[in-house]
Specification:
It contains five helices and five strands, in the order E-E-E-H-H-E-E-H-H-H. By secondary structure, the protein is α+β, with helices and mostly antiparallel strands. Strands 2-1-3 form a three-stranded antiparallel beta sheet, with no helix packed on it. Strands 4-5 form a two-stranded antiparallel ribbon. The protein starts with a strand and ends in a 6-residue tail after the last helix.
Length: 149
């Protein structure tokens, strides 16, 4: 979603989240577009909607992602690696697991880059895909039955 700023005649400032088509006076207008920052919530929504196939699987994916983000690394606030130093990043991926998941995603044309398990967006996208590809038991809290949907 973008925010547009219109400055016309040096004195009018208008913010909108809705695209606006408006004539511009000849004395000059400046249009500035800013991309709104991606939050964890928007990333979770975006990738749950991308990889979930039904309304239920989209909601299920969102719930699991939020649970894992909280449980695994406090929404990215914990920078330590768990599982004896093997699981790192906001969703505590083992390096080999993360790489293998991303390689499958690349082969299937779902992404073009390997990315990083330390990157919030890459981790959320990979986990959303994994949850919808039947691979959610790679996370301990799910494998142990801490969350059941």
């Amino acid at each position: 979603m973008a925010i547009l700023i219109f400055i016309c005649s040096g004195c009018i400032l208008y913010w909108t989240r809705i695209p606006v088509i408006s004539p511009c006076p000849d004395d000059g207008c400046m249009f500035i577009s800013y991309e709104t920052p991606k939050t964890i919530d928007t990333l979770v929504d975006m990738y749950a909607n991308k990889y979930g196939k039904t309304a239920w699987t989209k909601l299920r994916t969102k719930t699991i992602l939020h649970y894992l983000l909280l449980r695994e690394a406090a929404y990215g606030n914990t920078k330590t690696c768990g599982d004896s130093g093997l699981a790192c990043g906001p969703l505590q991926f083992h390096d080999a697991t993360y790489i293998s998941f991303r390689q499958i995603m690349i082969e299937r044309g779902l992404t073009t880059k390997l990315g990083s398990r330390w990157d919030m967006e890459d981790s959320i996208e990979t986990a959303a895909w994994a949850i919808n590809d039947g691979r959610e038991n790679n996370w301990g809290p799910i494998a142990r039955g801490e969350i059941q949907l």
